[in-house]
Model the fold of this input.
Amino acid sequence: MEIFLMFLKVFAVGGAICTLAQLLINYTKITAGKILVYFLLAGAILQAFGLYQYVVDFAGAGATVPISGFGYLLSKGAMEGAKESLFKAITGGITAAGMGITAAIVFGYLFALIFKSRSKKN
Amino acid sequence: MENNQNFINDNYLNYVKSVSPKTNEKRSLIRAFLVGGLICSIGQGLRYMFQYLVGLEGDELAAYVSAVMIFLGAFLTGLGVYDRIGKFAGGGSIVPITGFANSVVSPAIEFKTEGYVYGVAAKMFVIAGPIIVFGVASSVLVGLIYYGIYNIF
Done:
């Protein structure tokens, strides 16, 4: 039952964040690439004030899977690093996001090599 | 003269509105909500799987989940499935981390003909590049501000 409730929260919050993006697509002329950047920065700034953590605690993957969760992770890493040293204050963000960036680069390159362009079919 | 110009502009804009296809805006919002929610739920499912089957927790758990989500996004983009989901879901497929993977693989495949260095490797970052630039820059800024706060107070 607890897990079911959690999935409900994940679905609601994750869906709401995506709906916000769709609102921007429908009613403004912001391109998809810029929406990603804005959402990333929104997550990073909210976490810089310690706020995005509440959303993550409430909705789990509903908050971490959207790109704003990536911004949250970067800020969180930097803030934790700042407690220890200047070096970790600078590297903490990209260390925390390291797995995501590495996965995107490695899988991205790999699958680009394996698969062929499908634009001709469209 | 100016009024006349405005009149023509209004006429033209009305004409454009009447001719251009009407995307159902309410429906697109519902689709974004459903697909976005579903993708996040898959992420949550992976969280539970890694937590209870592998015993991961905390940051490590979150990192592996996002890596698998990126794998799935990249793989489905390669198969051409993700772009079909994107046509249906709009923002629902762009904002999740799988959409980030899609934004890496999609241009990389598209520009394969320009070679493996300036084609694939360079074009991978057309959309992902700005995200990494702003992400890393903002994290350094946040880190430095917090370092300053901790060491002054």
Chain B touches chain A through 82 residues (CB under 8 Å).
